[in-house]
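Re: export button greyed out
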Amino acid sequence: MAWKTLDDMDLKGKRVLVRVDINVPMENGEVTDATRIERIVPTVDHIQHAGGTVILMAHYGRPKGKVVPEMSLEHIAGTVAEVLGWPIVWANSDYRDAVKELENDEILLLENLRFNPGEETNDEGFAKRLASLADIYVNDAFSAAHRAHASTEAIAHLLPSCAGRLMQEELSALENALETPKRPVTAVVGGAKVSTKLELLGNLVSKVDNLVIGGGMANTFLAAQGMDVGKSLCEHDLADTAREIMAKAKAAGCAILLPSDVVVAREFKAGAAHEVVAASDCPADAMILDAGPRAVEAINAALGESQTLVWNGPLGAFEIEPFDRATNAAAAEAARLSKAGKLTSVAGGGDTVAALNKAGAADDFTYISTAGGAFLEWLEGKDLPGVAALKG
Ligand code: ADP
Ligand code: MG
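Workaround output, generated via the alternate export path:
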């Protein structure tokens, strides 16, 4: 590993500035899902038990460099204390005084970083001000690592730095899946549109052995091969791009798996009348809403021969039944193989996580990334500034 972890740091008696993502959903002043706070517990506990003092820093919402009272982290300080099980002191902009007054075991929570315009501009001065509070910097916010901000990038050059437990877990899972994977590697890429995942597809064809293309984006590939996709969601203007991706895959020795059969319907609604047809036989007045049973068999066969799976994007319109069937069936097979120790499976993406949860498969996947944008940028092969800075 190219970055340090908490195990490499001497934390005793040190003040440790920890960048976390506690951007939790709230309704009527109450936190409705504390998962993001729960996930930083291992890092916080480790530092506190090792005799360090944790100073938490985080963003909340998009205040754009101004003080927006509704986005103050003061509103969630109570929940943070409850979930972490340590006393929390909240500090507005008088960080220094607050640090001096910290008592035994107390954790300091700094006000929303994005109230300061220097945060999002990666301002050296703001980073220095933050760094002056502590002896060590820990980044535990992989989900914010795709942004070069003062608290994720600049600060890492000013203090001895390392990855927190959550960051470490996420990076190891991702490296195991794409940088140093056991082969063969299969990627499943689905979702609505090719246009949102062009860079991702371009990167994956040079890294994986099989690329399963599903969801609405498969229609664009089918159409690019001359098939009539009727009224399906399809980006006809991307036909050339789709053909280029297929050519790049061929040159790289990556097999592309498109659905051989599909589920079509005339309406986009739950329980709509539907039928299974060959991918080349979509009726002119119908739309493709899911992959068919033969396609699922081929996908599951590919999974059975693979050692590693990376998954982003559902195979069909999984929100409306019965067009969740292909996604559910492939997810169940991936879960089964993972549970049996035969497959390392990593998945991420907002709708993907929802779909795998709905399929009841998420718990058996090797790793589910909740990082959203950072996960996608990593699949695109981009260097994430927050991760690169930890290596430097
Ligand atoms: P993620 O958020 O995991 O990256 P996307 O946002 O790219 O995934 O894609 C999810 C969306 O793709 C879902 O809303 C799903 O309904 C839609 N989708 C999948 N297959 C089809 C299809 N054949 N036709 C229309 N929409 C589809
Ligand atoms: Mg989405």
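The two ends are 13 Å apart (CA to CA). The button fix ships in the next patch.
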